[in-house]
Design goal:
mainly alpha, 0% strand
Length: 59
């Protein structure tokens, strides 16, 4: 779980920051919702990759 958390932060923060450059986000709720909408798929992708890697290493 720690690997998933740290990897998601390391990958997700730059992705959300880069994606936010192309979108107008005038209010804090807009910014928070944008971060969730972009961050959720990043978290899902990272968690699947970490799971696959752990399963591969176990076998």
């Amino acid at each position: 779980m720690q690997v998933t958390f740290v990897t998601t932060l390391a990958v997700g923060v730059p992705v959300v920051a880069a994606a936010s450059l192309f979108v107008t986000l005038p209010t804090w709720p807009d910014r928070a919702l944008f971060a969730v909408r972009v961050g959720a798929p990043v978290w899902l992708l990272v968690s699947l990759c970490v799971y696959s890697y752990a399963r591969y290493q176990k076998s």
